[in-house]
Amino acid sequence: MEQINSPTASEEVVLFVVDRQGQEHVLPALPGWRAMEVIRDWGLDIKATCGGACACATCHVYVDPQWLDQLPAPLEEETDRLDEAFDVEPNSRLACQILMSREISGLRLRLAPGSEKE
Length: 118
Description:
Layout: E1 2-3, E2 13-18, E3 24-29, H1 35-41, E4 60-63, H2 76-82, E5 92-94, E6 107-111
Parallel strand pairs: 1-3, 2-6
Antiparallel strand pairs: 2-3, 4-5, 4-6
């Protein structure tokens, strides 16, 4: 597991991301930032074409099953965008629609196929 700038205080928000090669990254995050922004800004391979406007599906991720019930349900707009994604699973979400907070610190996501940069 690669740790990028290990958080030092227990109140810091952390996002765990498993890349397409199976390597897990520990990413410090700021409350209110989208998971997509955190993943992108730490330099992981995520396309995120629309920049968080929920206008594409290029930030498709899989949410670790233990976290599904702790996230707000996807809105219809997100569900419609997921219809455009590859390899959609019951735990598929768009990372641009997940707002980081202390309540979901420790959230674990896996990058989905089709969201790679070209």
